[in-house]
């Protein structure tokens, strides 16, 4: 009994912290329709700023409250700067580019924080009053957790008053219901958006500051909190405050009890809950269809089948690629193998993203599944390399087919969020299931066998497999199936009206793309000799998106060129600067802001 | 027997009754015009017949088979082709490829993964385009067509499935007067030659009175009059709500 009570209270404390962050995220989303990755950065900045303030203040409750408030206000100011400098320019861009741009901001803030506060975790020494306990059913319960528990409902109440009783609140609600109405009513939209951002950022900062005493300020907290906050916001229904509160309660309790009952599955549980709810209620618990459904294709261009000389060009490129091992050194050869894998990974994403019009934000899931399938088959079942390599696309394709059944019915930001959630599930399993995956340490010692042991031989193997797979995917895209896939993107209405099985076509494309990414993962496992959870991490999904967007989303040659350029960039950038995340973020931002209709839109404009 | 039979069809959007107890039939080779002011509920009726909207009440029968609430793809395969008020075509494809796509869908050749689509149903697509006077536009991108040509392309795609029933929501929008007349003559000829039942809406009254066998007048979701051209012209209710408006 005591156990249940204290775990429930712990869950409530967690729910409060989550709600503070998620409420800001959902309010900002409701008005601006931007899903803001950098909201996690604001949370992290709130914690760091609070650390800087609180370590300089007297250690009693009143000063603590003042310091936390100061940190929240400072974060609000930073949020306004973020809105003015970056997000304001993105309101009309397709969602996927918004996600990318705000992820770029997150990368930049990460390195800025590293430069200012250093790499060490910064704990806040707890003052005596904070170390107090209260007795709950004969169990000692930390006093500070009660403070946290109170914070959630207090903020919800304050927000409710703000939205129900003030003119500003009425405007925010009107804008959430109908974005065009704000423009129609002649309201100063810039001011409204900036103030909403200030509020949302302030809430994130408050959440970060309040979370500080329980743990520490550290560089991983931005991504950790934002993925949880995404789950809460999507689960509750995007733009819905009561929904966010309800979802935060569910996730908070799920984590509190999960950590005791299923300690290895805490991360998986939250994402699985979200995935299940989205399958049943595609707009979340309390969300509505109108908010967040804006499936915009990323620049639809007129596509022609290749001209006569194309086959010769491909042959010439393949011949040159096959001869490269004779002239390059071992380092460059390794890099080229990596580039081949990146090309297959990017082209496989292109299939769903371009012709499929499905804005997947979790493509690394399939890469990761393929990599683990091959590595585990090789390590635990001593599978020979050809078998392990064959298992990679098969497993990834099967899982993509199973999960895709639900994903392909969604559109727009919900599709992006569910793919992201699924990739996080894969990542979490890889992280937490030590016994199978080795957790953070990964699976090691997966080396090519026999003939393929020589690096140049493995390069040729990778070249043969990647080229065959890419050319086959390209052929599929110009076959009736590929045209039909493009038809479902160009006009779902017309596609259905001429009798195309729209959902089944999208589903098949999703599974095919997952299988191809899985093969890329399997090759990566053998090329590196190891597999790590990062293969399925958000950053790796972003890598694939960048490759496709960098090269152009319209044709298969786009992701091929993009993958080459990006592989080069990802090697050169860390060599040139220790703050490579900052520069990568800046490059993404510039690309997205200069070509807000998608980098591929360049050609359309030309 | 009539090709299309609609009985007591109703649909509300919140408080708006977009269609209210709508019943009519269309016979093979017959052209029925559905007219009425903007917002009368014409497109809503089309969408309930075509499967884009599920009706709140009522029945839709195609060749005697109940298709109420069926999916658009099934209704298409059972023999209904349609055009939309706002033309819906595939922007990334050429005019010919748009028609090929419709033929590929109709012949269920979608699940071919390795053979190039360029040769698939190509001759038939070109013949269909020639029939609609679009042969010289076959290689252009659908996205650059004039609006009138886009509507014509939609018609070609609707005809690709050799439909028994053709639904045309404002087929001549965006066309010049002479073009309208010639398109409607063409549809008339197709309807007669292939015994297609045609249900269409049209704002151009000349086109309606010169082509339709029968006319149905819709206002606020209800049918207020039906009959041939002269009867509709003479109907006082129609003059009040509809013709008076022009
Ligand atoms: N999807 C919808 N949601 C809400 N109202 C709709 C929707 N579609 C149509 N309506 C309303 O139903 C009525 C009939 O519309 P419609 O069938 O498009 O008329 P028409 O085609 O005759 O101009 C109008 O009042 C319109 O505003
Ligand atoms: Mg209409």
Compute the number of helices of chain A: 25
| Biggest pleated sheet of chain B | 6 strands, mixed
Bound molecules: adenosine-5'-diphosphate, magnesium ion
Give me the Rg of chain A, rounded: 25 Å
Q: Kindly state the percentage of residues in helix of chain B.
A: 25-40%
- Structural class designation of chain A: mainly alpha
From the N-terminal CA to the C-terminal CA of chain B, the straight-line distance is: 37 Å
User: Low-confidence spans of chain A: pLDDT under 50, at least 5 residues?
Assistant: none
Low-confidence stretches of chain B: none
What can you tell me about this protein's structure?
The complex is a heterodimer of chains A (606) and B (246). Chain A has 606 residues and is mostly helical. Chain A has helices spanning 2-32, 39-54, 61-85, 95-117, 143-165, 167-177, 179-184, 189-211, 221-236, 241-261, 266-280, 310-323, 330-353, 364-380, 385-407, 412-432, 434-437, 455-477, 480-490, 492-497, 502-528, 538-551, 557-576, 580-594, 601-605, and strands spanning 122-123, 133-136, 139-142, 216-217, 443-444, 530-531. In chain A, the strands form three sheets. Chain A has a two-stranded antiparallel sheet with strand order 1-4. A two-stranded antiparallel sheet of chain A has the order 2-3. Chain A has a two-stranded antiparallel ribbon with strand order 5-6. In chain A, β2 (133-136) and β3 form a beta hairpin. Chain A is globular and about 75 Å long. In chain B, the strands form two sheets. A six-stranded mixed beta sheet of chain B has the order 6-7-8-3-9-10, sandwiched between helices. At the A-B interface, α18, α19 and α20 of A face α2, α3 and α5 of B. The complex binds adenosine-5'-diphosphate (ADP) and magnesium ion. Magnesium ion (MG) is lined by residues 42-43, 85, 169 of chain B.
